[in-house]
Structures are given as structure tokens and as C-alpha cells.
Design goal:
Elements (H helix, E strand, L loop, with lengths): L4 H4 L23 H10 L6 H9 L8 H12 L12 H4 L18
Length: 110
């Protein structure tokens, strides 16, 4: 599914929870992309297209995290949101997008 302008017509602070998509990202240990997402959504005068560009354009986002953000926003704006309380990252996104390419992950952190 392609997420177009319709999904973002009302992009606002109500979509804050979708910024959590960018948290716990080993490629972004200081949460630059999360903060960038929150700032974009807190700017009511910023056109939606520019908000999306800022969120998607964070260079620390690996893989499909921006597409996962799109899915979250689409879900929040759908009727499914009323039935579930939180967007399920594991069911809709790939955890490997948060991992450092080439790093071997074995067991819990030491």
C-alpha cells in the first residue's frame, strides 16, 4: 500500500506516538530522529509535505523505519485505532531496521 497525501492531511501532535517508531534504534543512540519527528509534528505552520520530508529524511533511519512511521500514522487515522490502544511495532515493522548493519547480536546486553 502506498501512503499518499490523504493519510497526512491531518498530521499533527496527535500522531506523537508514531515517533516512538524511531526509538530504541542502535543506529541513533541519542534519538536524533525521534526528536526530529516530534519537532516536525509540533510545527502547525509547517506544511504536511515538509513535515514528512523532515521525518523521512533523518539520515540515521535505516531500512524501512520511515515506512513503518507511515503505517503507524495510517493506522492512527483508521477505524482500527479505536479497537486497539497501541500500534504493534513487531506486527507491522522489522526490528532489524533498528540494528547496526554487520553487528552480531547474541542474547541480552551485557
Amino acid at each position: 500500500m502506498i501512503y499518499g497525501v490523504e493519510e497526512y492531511q491531518n498530521l499533527s501532535i496527535n500522531d506523537f506516538q508514531c515517533c516512538s517508531i524511531f526509538e530504541e534504534n542502535d543506529n541513533d543512540p541519542t534519538n536524533v530522529c525521534t526528536q526530529r519527528c516530534l519537532r516536525a509534528l509540533q510545527s502547525p505552520s509547517l506544511p504536511n509535505e515538509r513535515k514528512i520530508r523532515q521525518i523521512h529524511g533523518c539520515r540515521l533511519n535505516m531500512g524501512n523505519l520511515p515506512k513503518c512511521f507511515d503505517k503507524c500514522v495510517s493506522w492512527l487515522h483508521s477505524s482500527d485505532f479505536r479497537m486497539m490502544q497501541q500500534f504493534n511495532f513487531s506486527a507491522n515493522c522489522d526490528w532489524s531496521d533498528r540494528l547496526i548493519p554487520g553487528k552480531l547480536y547474541i542474547g541480552p546486553p551485557v
